[in-house]
Amino acid sequence: MTKNKLRVIPLGGASEVGRNMWVFEYEEDIIICDMGVMFPESEMMGVDLVLPDITYLRDKVANIRGVLLTHGHEDHIGAVPWLIGDLGFPTVYGTTLTLGLLSNKLKEHRLTDKVSTKTIAPGDKFQLGCFTIEPFHIAHSIPDSVGFGLTSPAGLALYITDWKLDHTPVDNWPTEIDRLVDFGRRNPIVLVTDCVRVESKGYTPSERVVGDAFDQIFATAPGRVIMATFASNISRVQMAINAAIDYGRKVVPVGRSMENNTSIARELGYLEVPDGVLIRPGDMKNLPDDQIAIVCTGSQGEPMAALSRMANRDHRQISIQRGDTVVISASPIPGNEVSVYKVIDNLYKLGANVIYGSDLPVHVSGHAAQEELKMLLNLVQPQYVIPFHGDYRHLARYKQLAEGMGFNGDNVLIAEGGSIMEFSQNYGKLVSRAPVGHVFVDGVSVGDIGGAVVRDRQMLAKDGILMVVVSVELQTGNLVAGPDIVSRGFVSTRDSTDLIEGAKEAVRASFSESYVVPARAFSDGEETAEGNSPAVSSPAARKIKEVVGRYLYERTRRRPMVIPVVMEV
Amino acid sequence: MTKNKLRVIPLGGASEVGRNMWVFEYEEDIIICDMGVMFPESEMMGVDLVLPDITYLRDKVANIRGVLLTHGHEDHIGAVPWLIGDLGFPTVYGTTLTLGLLSNKLKEHRLTDKVSTKTIAPGDKFQLGCFTIEPFHIAHSIPDSVGFGLTSPAGLALYITDWKLDHTPVDNWPTEIDRLVDFGRRNPIVLVTDCVRVESKGYTPSERVVGDAFDQIFATAPGRVIMATFASNISRVQMAINAAIDYGRKVVPVGRSMENNTSIARELGYLEVPDGVLIRPGDMKNLPDDQIAIVCTGSQGEPMAALSRMANRDHRQISIQRGDTVVISASPIPGNEVSVYKVIDNLYKLGANVIYGSDLPVHVSGHAAQEELKMLLNLVQPQYVIPFHGDYRHLARYKQLAEGMGFNGDNVLIAEGGSIMEFSQNYGKLVSRAPVGHVFVDGVSVGDIGGAVVRDRQMLAKDGILMVVVSVELQTGNLVAGPDIVSRGFVSTRDSTDLIEGAKEAVRASFSESYVVPARAFSDGEETAEGNSPAVSSPAARKIKEVVGRYLYERTRRRPMVIPVVMEV
């Protein structure tokens, strides 16, 4: 730990969307900014969540002065319940709405009494260790979002994530450009900024244009309106409520997170809803269809969320009917396109009309586009920049964008996960790497499964598995029962009796005295993490595996996982 | 088979992109239009190709008068080698380039001598059974594309797939609007048209705008240009060659299908390349970087294609270097976004600059947008329309588009795969359904695997598998060896010894005398197609499965597939 330098480390990986968790460290003081989860990529089969890797902090837990949260999205607060204990329960600082959304999670994990939180607001200024913390308001797709100025003896660092400029935000609270100007005058040493929309030219439109689109839809839809969006996008929900009121519709929040978030936001004053506007699904039957607006989850085609279940005729309370107008008020996150389109197809099959994509401006991003990113650089004039919250191409293009403005490209640090960077006046460098990997949450345990298990699932998904079970006599090694072959995901045994019989014959033949295990050690690369008992790793087992694997490949060109089990009796 | 009616049946499923195969049947005469493959969806794990289902034709093979191909894309000709034999080797009709691309496939399948083909051209008019066939030229993203007028005693049917209007196509041959006008005057009974871009407002831009973008790039790129596109998009390749010549670059086709298609197209006169312009990868070392343009496959992020391998540093001949300009001249097909973005990320990591998406117009679609679709309806004035080559939402929106123009919505037939529709003057109806399913090609055999096997792979991919093997005494049913537990893709046994030990203990306990199999039959819904031997379906086996499944779920909330194997000794 270098003296006099500010250390900045992205534990979630700067180059991955999600899992945001940043360490700002000056000598004996550590501040953590955000603690989010990442949703698994499609190859991470069967995994529920991916957490940041806190290995770097394990020996430094006593130095943690606090956790600062910027806003209430899952990829910024979702990991708090999972990690806060291992981090020694430092105090968590956040705005009212952010802490309100967090408190729900803490309750679910039974941590309410263990975690201390402190409400902050833009304009505050407080000390945590040697750091002076200055939150300021930014516009995003959830209200009450802030960025942080963090001043240590090394200088001023700015942490600005998930931001845009919006001159007409729904809560009437634009990004505080005046604060950015002030910070800019203090010669910040480093700016950490999101860059996920660096591919988009111009400026991101205001949230307000969606409100205009909603007006048009809510006024003219012949029957019910069903609007799907992120439950955390309170501004979007507010505009739906406003349009509903203007056109005489009651609003029905549907979906657990939608109901929760709407309720928390309302309670804390972030959602304005006159009494009597919100109703429950059961109350709908008393109303004509054109007086109903349902606001629900599922805008990403998530299988368990409300809209997907409605599209699958699988929702207990809502059935899609002819004449419904469904609005998909979101853009598919890369990877979700097929799920979203399947939901839309099914909604059409059920007779709904669906408004999505570029039909009408029913969605705008919460992130800055190229011109806003350039403006921030000009306002803040940092010595160094760390772009993040994007994939590698976004970081690389941000660097190009900065260079195009005359910014020194060497001062734009492209940080992979775990990069340890150090800064002070006119000094900025990648010095080493912290150990970071994917930490999976699968089922109820954290870290229960490793990369090898996920790889096995991928192999199983490709060609299936074949189990070959024999009983052999302990003394002689002779076959006394079997082989029995059970396959899953490989081939329809009913249709392929000959193939399976042939494999059995090959096994039997291998037990005859003349068979010699080929000298070449067959290596499937199957060094899995799952321990092998002697039943699967003995010479007899290896022989079976080799024989069956080769037989099947020659006939089918497929490589199912072959698991031999040799019972010695 | 109704007399006096034209039967129209999509065997590939009108509502799926790909697998195009249409049957036009009048009494004893059958014409097949197109015979394409579909690439598997991500849930169809481990499957290589999906073919149309020709069950409907099995008893009618003698009635097949010919196969008409519209153009050389995989989803229109890819199934010919797989199915033409089962269909009795009817003659295949296509334009010069289409048959040229087909001949390559027939050679690979050793069918060249068995399949008879006949070259046709726009303006031809010929008889097949009672059908008069009239091909006419349409613009698409591959040259030499046609639509067909098919006249039977029932009336004129128009089959127009994969088309757009392009007034400045690269081959100077626009869609023959005059032919459409002529057909329109003959009161066609039914129009079959693609509608995949019905979500797009306005008109699809001309292929020519890509040429302008290529000019800009090829002129200014500091080093090599690497342009990735579909190998079948000969027009795109032509424009790359034109720009290369204009700016002093040699052209290197890379990727098996790119090399093949370029060669076939050139041979047949569809690609104009002066001598000396095309070079081989090995010749590049003699040239400065800014005199090189590589044209390669992989624009969809396909793992085995050239660009992905270059991005993974896995291509034998080409290594990406700093200063390369890569152009992704394609739009990701839904489902491919993540693969494409990963390739782009990796290219940036290797120091390339990448031009993609909306940076510059480096790609336009080959399909008609809303205004073109409307224009076709006005020109042709069919009595009935069958929109296809889209997902359900496209078909539904096409119907809305037609209704918006005053077309009678009841006369737009939304046809699921296998729909048997019949037409004559002022008559059009869905009369029944042909049996169609997914026919998988997996490994080397067709139809080898069924839906159940694919479902098993999905289950394995999600939670993995656990095998529990015991030996029991035949007479007493007592446990004599085991239980041995082997898991794959479930949990790291090394880390979860307690869990596995507990499962073993539960199995042992279940063999004690006091254990009673619960009355409720546990049903995992695991009615798989793979036959079960007694070793896995006996009462003892079912007991083990129930006990272990319950134990694991209670502790982990996961449901791995549990396969009990009971060896009786």
From TrEMBL, chains A, B:
Binding positions for substrate per the UniProt entry: A231, S232, N233, H363, V364, S365, G366, H367
Binding site for Zn(2+): H71, H73, D75, H76, H140, D162, H389
GO molecular function: 5'-3' RNA exonuclease activity; RNA binding; RNA endonuclease activity; zinc ion binding
Active-site feature positions: D194 (proton donor), H367 (proton acceptor)
Cofactor remark: Binds 2 Zn(2+) ions per subunit. It is not clear if Zn(2+) or Mg(2+) is physiologically important.
HAMAP family the UniProt entry points to: RNase_J_bact
Summary of subunit composition and partner proteins: Homodimer, may be a subunit of the RNA degradosome.
UniProt cross-references to PANTHER family, sorted A to Z: RIBONUCLEASE J (PTHR43694:SF1)
Name of the protein in its database record: Ribonuclease J
Organism of origin: Herpetosiphon geysericola
Encoding gene (name): rnj
